[in-house]
Design goal:
The chain has helices at about 15-20, 25, 40-45, 55-70, 100-110, and strands at about 15, 35, 75, 90-95. The protein has a 4-stranded parallel beta sheet. With about 110 residues, it is an alpha/beta fold.
Length: about 110
Amino acid sequence: MADAPAEQLLLPMVETAAGLRNAADILAVDGVDGVFVGPYDLSISSGFPAPDSPQTLDAVRHVLGLARGAGKVAGFMAGAPGLVDLAPEADLVALDTDVAALRLGLSLIVR
């Protein structure tokens, strides 16, 4: 911790139906800098058909809009092709996980 930056960025994950319902309240917590949406878990928790289904895209857009309205940072995981179109609406976009990137890299070596 001695080498940690003086200021930290606090981005709670919104990746459940409960998180979606409470996103505005989460963003209102003092010290929270924004949110990061996990569309994969969010779609499962909410009963949506896929992480890039229209229902999930609407939910992600909703949370991104709440964050923007609160003047806070908004990010999301965009591993599914349909999610990439939301990138201009976010401050932070994760394109893949470290495990998936390593798996892809190893598959290219093993060929």
